[in-house]
Design a protein that fits this description.
Elements lengths: L4 H8 L5 H26 L6 H16 L3 E6 L11 E5 L2 E3 L7 H12 L14 E7 L2 E9 L8 H107 L2 H35 L5 H10 L7 E7 L7 H20 L5 E8 L3 E8 L5 H13 L7 H12 L3 E6 L5 E8 L22
Parallel strand pairs: 6-7
Antiparallel strand pairs: 1-2, 1-5, 2-3, 4-5, 7-8, 8-10, 9-10
Helix pairs in contact: 2-3, 2-5, 3-5, 5-6, 7-8, 8-10, 9-10
């Protein structure tokens, strides 16, 4: 601390030995402050790593003691992350190679490294200053220094170096914890990223497994349906078709015998002509049904337009020419929805042949952004108004099977959330139109939609 001018006379007027001692104390106090400042600068550098921290410590201690040699040592078995384990400084040069140390410096190195509890024993320095470094009251190393010539080391100097050493031990430990925490955090981030990726992969695999399971269930269901189709086809071929053919042959034989008798028998033979035609028509229908059942079993499922094309070939034996037209890019639909649409189309074609006596039919499938439009038009003799009346009656009573197909078509339209309409076609017959809103909302349990009236073209 500077002395006011007015007090210098008083200091100088005393004994001659007091003033030099005061000057030396002031200098040592200034050095102590500088050393404490060095300590603070060293301790705040925890994040730079252990070596940089040790270098700051030895520089601060060397400057305070004006040392020719200074040795900082971490004892064996403690602070395992501290590197280097010792560091010496001489003439401003940092030395961490033990072979470059003089013999007397290596003696102090051995004590600080192996017997840190002996660091501050009396008269053990031999011209050196040694202070211990402790952590939680346990010796963990120390500092040994050879002060500059003419420098008298006071107890306060030892205390300052001891504070520096002890705080260095705490800083080294904190540095180790800091870097270990940083590494653990980095590892934790890596594990979190890996866990996130694994979770995403697991979700993808779960979705694939669910889709595979769904496909397996669908394949099993298709196999059961195919087996049932094959059984029904065999029964139709082996029993019903043979019986119908036998009936037709019997009618033909009876008609021929009656025609040969002449007279009234000839009129009876002519009356049997429609029965012969009905038997032939029934046989053709049975063959078409058998063909359709086998076709479904033998050919793989495809897109809806392909399945409609296949369905149109089923009715060729009845002399019905069917054409399929597609508009817009196809949209994938659930298999059960496509099956319902195929059933609806099959019913429409059957009605065109069985009731409308049609010879040509047009299936038009349109994919639009908000609706899937399907229509089946024919050139038959069907009456749209009569069909609409029949459908209204079907809501109140059974139609004894004659128009059961139309009722089924209305039920399918309701299940798909769509609407069925019946109009007069441009070719003179009937056009049945089905509109299904997109995207699909699933089967609907609401009441049936009655077909709308009016005349419409085949669009």
């Amino acid at each position: 601390m500077p002395i006011p001018p007015e007090n210098l006379a008083l200091v100088g007027s005393g004994k001659r030995s007091y003033y030099p001692e005061y000057v030396r104390s002031a200098e040592r106090l200034e050095q102590a402050v500088q050393a404490l400042d060095g300590i603070s600068r060293a301790l705040v550098r925890t994040a730079v790593g252990p070596r940089a921290l040790i270098e700051w410590v030895v520089r601060a201690a060397t400057a305070h003691l004006q040392a020719d040699w200074l040795l900082f040592v971490v004892a064996d078995g403690v602070l395992p992350a501290a590197r280097p384990r010792f560091l010496a400084v001489a003439g401003g040069e940092m030395i961490d190679d033990e072979s470059r140390l003089p013999a007397d410096v290596r003696e102090h190195l051995a004590v600080l490294r192996g017997r840190p509890w002996e660091v501050e024993l009396p008269d053990s320095g031999q011209g050196w200053v040694r202070v211990s470094m402790t952590l939680e009251d346990e010796p963990v190393g120390g500092i040994a220094a050879r002060p500059g010539a003419g420098l008298e080391v006071a107890a306060t100097d030892r205390a300052i170096v001891r504070v520096l050493a002890n705080q260095a031990a705490v800083a080294l430990h904190n540095s180790f914890l800091f870097h270990a925490t940083t590494q653990l955090r980095g590892r934790s981030d890596q594990l979190y990223d890996a866990t996130t990726r694994h979770a995403k992969d697991l979700a993808v695999r779960s979705a694939e497994l669910a889709e595979t399971q769904r496909q397996l269930v669908a394949a099993t269901q298709r196999q059961v349906l195919d087996d049932e189709r094959a059984r029904i086809a065999r029964e139709l071929h082996d029993s019903v078709t043979q019986s119908v053919l036998s009936v037709g042959m019997t009618i033909e034989v009876c008609r021929a015998e009656l025609a040969s008798m002449g007279g009234p028998a000839t009129e009876i033979a002519e009356r049997l002509e429609p029965a012969k035609d009905l038997a032939r028509h029934a046989a053709e229908q049975l063959r078409a049904a058998i063909y359709a059942l086998h076709r479904a079993a033998d050919e793989p499922a495809g897109p809806l337009p392909v399945m409609l094309q296949r369905l149109s070939t089923v009715h060729q034996p009845t002399n019905l020419h069917v054409k399929v037209m597609l508009e817009g890019p196809p949209i994938p639909l659930p298999p059960e929805v496509e099956q319902s649409i195929l059933r609806w189309t099959g019913e429409a074609l059957f009605n065109a042949v069985a009731h409308g006596k049609a010879t040509r039919a047009l299936i038009r499938l349109r994919y639009r952004a908000d609706v899937l439009a399907l229509s089946v038009s024919d050139n038959g003799t069907g009456d749209p108004a009569q069909l609409r009346r029949a459908l209204r009656l079907s809501r109140a009573s059974d139609l004894s099977g004659r128009h059961r197909g139309l009722a089924n078509m209305l039920a399918l339209a309701d299940d798909l959330g769509g609407a069925l309409s019946i109009h007069r076609s441009r070719s003179g017959g009937v056009i049945l139109r089905l509109g299904i809103p997109l995207p699909l909302a699933g089967p609907r349990a609401a009441g049936s939609r009655l077909p709308t009236e009016g005349r419409s073209g085949d669009t």
